[in-house]
Amino acid sequence: MLDSYFKISERGSTIAQEVRGGLVTFFTMAYIVALNPLILATTDGAGEFIGGGDRTNAIIIVAAGTALIAGILTILMGAVANFPIALATGLGLNTFVAVSIAKNSTWAQAMGLVLIEGILILILVLTGFRIAVFKAIPNALKLAISVGIGLFIALIGLVDAGFVRRTPNFVWSSENSKPANVPLELGDGGELVGWPIVIFAFGLFLTIILMIRKIKGSILIGIITSTILALIVETQFKVGNSFISPTESNSRGWGLNTPALPKDSSGALNLTDTPRFDTLGLGFEDIFGAFTNPKTGFLAASLLVFTLLLADFFDTMGTMTAIGNQAGLVDKSGNVEGANRILIVDSIAAATGGAAGVSSNTSYIESATGVGEGARTGLASIVTGIAFLLTTFLAPIVAMIPYEAATPALIIVGFLMMSQVKNIDWDDLGIGIPAFLTIILMPFTYNISVGIGAGFITHVVIRLVQGRIKEVHPLLLLVSGLFMIYFLQSPVNALIG
């Protein structure tokens, strides 16, 4: 029954592969359960924490809500779309909601805008507009999106592991108006320091060796083994967390989670926690309030919704394309199998995240790690979703996995996705230059949509100069125009006051 429903054999997979792939995806993106609360646990324009109470209360309820919604939506993706992709609160989107929207409104109004954006993007899918835009993109640019995302997630892995870091004293030279040093550097001050880097390197080389030896479950084995080693290292050397206070940090500490056996206040081993879901329904409490709030107003609120819509629209399209290519679930034109169902579930996820008060949920590129482990069907997504649901009760166990144990998987998957670059026609400048900009701007700007937008606009301009504008699909012209508005938001906002 499972094989027939999910087409497991037809896609060259097995139930064991799907389970392994689902678990790898979960371990790679489980950090969102710990990170989303840290981003959303701040005060809104009224000085209130999300869910009421203090910051600690906000962290507890957002963590539980994040895991619950991610679990439900990922299971829905697997059951309805039969695609190996997981969903959770979107990084970047949650920061935008917390900083750019909630600070000038209330949490209920901010989540109301997220809910509206989700409903609008669902309408675009149901009317066929979203899938039509996807089909209007040249196949070579779809490949460039996959390659760019591969480099992007590899950079995410390097940054989260602390192998690459932001230069702390990055300054501009007043003499020649250019940077006096580079914005990123190797480790701390150009040196690799601390035990966490050792764990990262161990996990990376272990996974590479297992892959070369063609051992099944290499990525999953690498994550679990590295986590066990991290627990031993923390027990022996008391490394501690990199974050000490808002003004103090430990450059040799763990990136997010400190690996340690979870214990309660009495010192006894504690593997479970009681979840609370106080934010559920928050998006419905004042859905249109931001449009009448004097701090935002109708026009500003509309632009905020547009920004969320455009980022959500193309981030998901890029993620779906990349994973479809990696899993071999695309046709000769680069169209993904079951794309419409995937986009419907993703659109529902955006609205659900706002309604549940945990910010817009979206498809995660970290799902590519599960595909790298062999996942090819929605069964892997159901496994990931179940793991997220269990996390609402087993959060202490998830907190044991440090960034440094999970991020080697992102490096490996970045390599696998990079291999598609050979299929791009670099001799055609109308394809090669836009593809190049798409690929480099995703990691350089830390934003998938920016890379896609730059590629689209450049493709249109070059075809115009070449006198081949008739080759560009009208929808691609429309979307490129919308991206111009997206890139010019600052002067537009200044113009309208």
Walk me through the structure.
Strands 1-8 form a two-stranded antiparallel sheet. A two-stranded antiparallel sheet has the order 2-5. The longest helix is centred in the middle third of the chain and has 31 residues, at 297-327. Helix 8 crosses helix 13, helix 13 crosses helix 14 (339-355) and helix 19 (429-445) runs antiparallel to helix 20. It has one domain. The model has no long low-confidence stretch (mean pLDDT 87). The protein is 62% helix and 4% strand. The protein is built from 22 helices and eight strands. The protein has 497 residues and is mainly α.
Which key phrases capture this entry?
single chain, 497 residues, mainly alpha, two-stranded antiparallel ribbon, 62% helix, globular
Q: Which term fits the overall shape?
A: globular
Q: Which stretches are poorly predicted, pLDDT < 50 over at least 5 residues?
A: none
Measured distance between first and last alpha carbons = 60 Å
**Count of distinct strands:** 8
Strand order of the largest sheet: 1-8
User: What's the tally of helices?
Assistant: 22
Summarize the structure.
Helix content is 62%, strand content 4%. With 497 residues, the protein is mainly α. The protein has one domain.
